[in-house]
Amino acid sequence: MVKVTKLVTSRPIVVFCVLGFLVTILGCISTSNWLTTTESLINDVASFTGDLRSSLVSEFENIGKFSYPKTNLSTIGLATVIDSSYLTNNDTGFTNIQTQIAPLLFEAYSTIPQVSQVSYISRDGFLFSYIRADIDTSVAVYANSSSSSSGGDYTWYTQTVDQITGRLNGNATKSQPLDVTHTDWFQAAQRNNYTTAFLGTSLGGGDNETLIQSAVSLFSKKGVVLLGFSVKSLTDVLSRLSLHGEEFYMWTKDGTVLVRQGSLNASLFISNGSICFGGRESKSVRSQCIPENCSSSGYEVEIKRSKFQAFCSHLEVSGVPLRYTVMFPNDGGATRIKHQAKKALYQFFVVTIFVAFGWPVWFVWFMVRATRREMHMRATLINQMEATQQAERKSMNKSQAFARASHDIRGSLAGIKGLIDLCRDNVHPGSDLDTNLKQMNVCAKDLLALLNSVLDMSKIESGKMQLDEEEFNLAKLVEDVIDFYHPVAMKKGVDVVLDPHDGSIFKFSNVRGDSGKLKQILNNLVSNAVKFTVDGHISIRAWAQRPGSKSSVVLASDPQGVVSKFFKCMFCKSTDQTEISNSIRNNANTMEFVFEVDDTGKGIPMEMRKSVFENYVQVRETAQGQQGTGLGLGIVQSLVRLMGGEIRITDKAMGEKGTCFQFNVLLTTLESPVSDMKVRQDIEAGGDHISTPNLGLTVNTSLGGGSMNIRNLSPRFNNCLTSSPKQECSRVVLLLKNEERRRVTEKHIKNLGIKVTVVEKWEHLSYALERIFGFSPQSSMGRAECSLSCPSARELPLIGMDGIDSRSQLPKRRSNSFNAVVLLVIDTKTGPFLELYNVVKQFRRGLHHGITCKVVWLNESSTRVSERGDISCSGPLHGSRLTEVLKMLPEFGGTGLKETSTELQRESLLRHSFVADTSPKHKLQEEGPSSGFNKELGKTIMAPTASESETWFKSVRTGRNPIGNPEEEQGTSMPSNDEFLRGKRVLVVDDCRITIKVATGRLTKMGVSEVKPCYSGKEAVRLVTEWLTQREQQGSVNRLPFDYIFMDCQMPEMDGYEATREIRKVEKSSGAHIPIIAVSGHDPGSREAREAIQAGMDGFLEKEMKQDQLANVIREVESKMNAQATL
Amino acid sequence: MNTIVVAQLQRQFQDYMVSLYQQGYLDNQFTELRKLQDEGSPDFVAEVVSLFFDDCAKLINDMSISLERPDHVDFKQVDSGVHQLKGSSSSVGARRVKNVCIAFKECCDVQNREGCLRCLQQVDYEYKMLKTKLQDLFNLEQQILQAGGTIPQVDIN
């Protein structure tokens, strides 16, 4: 269609011509067809008309020939009869006539058809004749005296006749006599052939009508018999013939027009036996005469401007010769059809021409108009698009300008804050000015926070927000966020609970992604939850799942379902976003992490749910008294989408208060987790079910639903599980204040396969303890179970089930090989501490020996607890803290009182918030084994141990101060590395005294016993050679001079590379290998770093010598050397 | 009374530290350095810092001598000096000095004497500035200790 339009528009005239040509050709074809059809039709009609004419002519002939031939015969017959009677009677007087001839006449009069006059005229002039005067009256005209007798008294009488008898009746009236005997016809009849015919008026009667008369002379020539027939009857017959517009004229030789029929009203006269039309004298109208010989073919004659075709012929009626002519009008019959056909043809031509020109013109015009309209629309569209683009550009520019501006504002604000701080320094604390300044500071901080959110928004809007990918521990991050908000929430009496759901979050806790933004999202949601929740709890659920499996969130974000999918298929270009996210989904390492922040606050009304994610929208009813820009959730949504996920508010069950935000993000999990945190989580998540000591094995668990990959299990743990196939189960008793926390913690511990007893109120504690352990604690599970099924279900609702669970899952672990542990976790907020303590004390006293009872006090100062030899835990009991508590159970490698694991004891000493048993017994055990342990287990064990405690410390520290950059956190993890290099001797080579000083400080802090500074490469080489020769002399092979050498790369005289090469040369002879670690200002991975390795150095460290980097490098070096050693 | 004084001093100290970080005089390395200081080495930071300043003075002096003569400058020597200065400044956490050193080194690499001189002046200025700042800081520390307080931990965030 468009092509046609284009064609038409581009060459309208050509198209017009082509179309016109086509239509003309069509018209011509149909015209010729039309013409032939008409031609044949005309021919048909012509032949038909010809037939009609000839039949008409023959009809005339017939009438002439057959109607009146007998008149002659009748006359002759009558004459013969009269002759005979006249012969017999010689009397020729009138009386004779009246008596003898009259009856004969009357007989003939009545019998001969159509006769209207029968007469007998004697030579003397006697006359007797019957004349039909009217249809039913006849008269007799007679002359009873001879015309030649007495001059002057020759009279005719007319008398009516009785129709039936023929007798005269009535009165005779005189009528004008006619000298009959001297007429032409009388003479002619007398003279030749005795018979003649003529046209003449009747002898008498009313009106002297013209008759065709035939006269026959008697043989005796005494008289003439005359029969007359009415011309009128002839003309009537002729008139009765149907004439279709033809003109019909009949006339006698002498010029009397007998019949004149037709519509033509022209004057005519007969001249010379032929008929002429037009005025006889007038010159104006030329007279037209039809010649005599026009019988065969028609003669064209024009009368009064109408053309006629005349046919003429002779006709003899009763011996009277008549001429007639029939004129057919030229505009009738075939001619008329011809004319009409011609007219129709013209009409047809006109129409064809009109169509041939009109239609293409219309078509072209229409097309041109359509195209013009389309062009117009396109132009409009282009304009619109340009306008849109411009608007978008403007908006983008605005956003960017806004971002820049807010950046500047932030700078100014920072200045203001700094100035406020400066002012405060000069102000006496506590004064009004000080408080004002403080408030100003708070205001400035708020302003800054506000600005930051606006800045984030504009960043996102201007598309500058990008993901900052790094490796991080997801579980820790979530825990950090919760720990940060926990104190704030607890102040309001709201508990913040981490619900690990199925524990999958721990399995895939090492991920790669933007931790900062994820934290921002969680912070925002949790802070919102804390802000709007007055009582109850806030639980944060997190779990991992395969992307796209049954991601409810993603599904929910796609409400159009099939239709939208269809459209997405249709318009592939518009689905870049989805494709990207799909590609992310298809990545094998990508996991989908779903988070739920569930509070019991006011909730968000249904109709507001969609708009809360829009910028600058706040739920008015709930926002009262709460500040904020309403940007938070908008930013959160943008961030979530940036991370390939979707956020929504899920519906809570009827009757449940609050809001539940659910969002998912896509993060890459790390295939080979380096961090030892993994071990911890693995132990926590599924370690319970391990039964083989092999590393890296996959164990199927009935809980959690999936397989868990266990790596690097601590030997102690494996040992514990494998060596004791039959052991008694431990039990955890929870006394927690918050219901949700009770539920979550119980579920979590149960998932690990540990029996849990939950006590709701502190008053029930002693009762519950009695119930559980009232009988011999070593009694079989069945008995315990039996006893447990008795107490009221409300207080101990899940105990019975616990028994079944643990029996089915841990059938092998029931034995006496080591003693079960009862772990009491008591929240001191549930009741008075002293009372609780008494209960515990009583319980302890009553315990069968062989069962260990450990108590963890929550929310209690460590001093008070540690005095009593228990452990205190501050901060919410979940995540790593819960893991740590559970690690005290023998199932997880924890120690009973009899067994002392040096490793764990040492670790417990390092705890800050946990205060391990400080009984002298433990202390004594602590010191010795720690060094012995190192020697026994070797350095390989050292590293993970250190890092394990390091991560532990991180979590503990961040429990107090969770929000901080990772760098800082790593910095705070120093104490854990204290013992890392215990007893090592280190050579530090650097030309810069300061660096040496710093390095010395750091290394000493890490437990290095001797740091030997060395200010040049040469000196270092000298020292090493010296020492090596010494060693050879002494023969002490075992000890290296230094455990590590830290070598600066760039030094005057001899740089690090050269020095290293020298040292390696020297070493070769003795076969020793001192690890040399390059220290340089360059990045690891730079050219210098490679050069360092090529030179023979073992590791590379940045100049700052950060603690964790140092530890990592040393670990690497160690593992390398161990590998070489084993080879 | 004493506690109030201590508290005020402590806060002043904290704020001062923060300002030093914010103004970019110091970076995290300094924090690290401070963490290394304990009972075993109470004056560790001061020692290191004074060493650093001595070095600075010496190196800057050397470099200025090297750069003195316009026609023939021993850029190699200057370069090694700058490198040393950069190393030591990053060890101490003197951020500004380090930054200037980076620029300085670039100038050295292209043997731009004018630029080198400018950088030298800047380094000189920066280290002296830092010196006075740190002097103040140490004085504050001394005051706190004399008043019987402890040096507060400063979180730089």
UniProtKB/TrEMBL annotation, chain A:
Keywords in alphabetical order, please: Membrane, Phosphoprotein, Transmembrane, Transmembrane helix
Histidine kinase domain mapped to chain residues: 404-669
4-aspartylphosphate: residues bearing it: 1048
What Gene3D superfamilies does this protein map onto? 1.10.287.130, 3.40.50.2300, Histidine kinase-like ATPase, C-terminal domain
EC number of this enzyme: 2.7.13.3
Question: Can the keyword Ribonucleoprotein be found in this entry's annotation?
Answer: no
Q: What InterPro entries does the record point to?
A: 2C_system_His_kinase, CheY-like_superfamily, HATPase_C_sf, HATPase_dom, His_kinase_dom, HisK_dim/P_dom, HisK_dim/P_sf, Sig_transdc_His_kin-like_C
Show the stretches that span the lipid bilayer: 12-35, 345-368
- Which top-rank group of organisms is this from? Eukaryota
Give every Response regulatory domain span: 985-1118
Q: What is this protein called?
A: histidine kinase
Which Pfam families is this protein grouped with? Answer: HATPase_c, HisKA, Response_reg
Which reaction equation describes what this protein catalyses? ATP + protein L-histidine = ADP + protein N-phospho-L-histidine
Q: What class of enzyme is it?
A: transferase
TrEMBL record, chain B:
Is DNA damage one of the keywords UniProt gives this record? no
Name of the protein? Histidine-containing phosphotransfer protein
**Protein's organism:** Camelina sativa (False flax)
Q: Which CDD domains match?
A: HPT
Task: Please name one Pfam family that this protein belongs to.
Answer: Hpt
Q: Which UniProt keywords are present, listed alphabetically?
A: Cytokinin signaling pathway, Phosphoprotein, Two-component regulatory system
* InterPro entries referenced in this protein's UniProt entry, alphabetically: AHP1-5/YPD1 (IPR045871), HPT_dom_sf (IPR036641), Sig_transdc_His_kin_Hpt_dom (IPR008207)
Quote the function comment for this protein. Functions as a two-component phosphorelay mediators between cytokinin sensor histidine kinases and response regulators (B-type ARRs). Plays an important role in propagating cytokinin signal transduction.
Domain HPt stretches: 41-148
- Its predominant location is cytoplasm
The UniProt gene name for this protein comes to LOC104754465
Note the superkingdom of the native organism: Eukaryota
Note what the entry says on domains.
Answer: Histidine-containing phosphotransfer domain (HPt) contains an active histidine that mediates the phosphotransfer.
Q: Which residues in this protein are found as Phosphohistidine?
A: 83
Where does it reside?
Answer: Cytoplasm, Cytosol; Nucleus
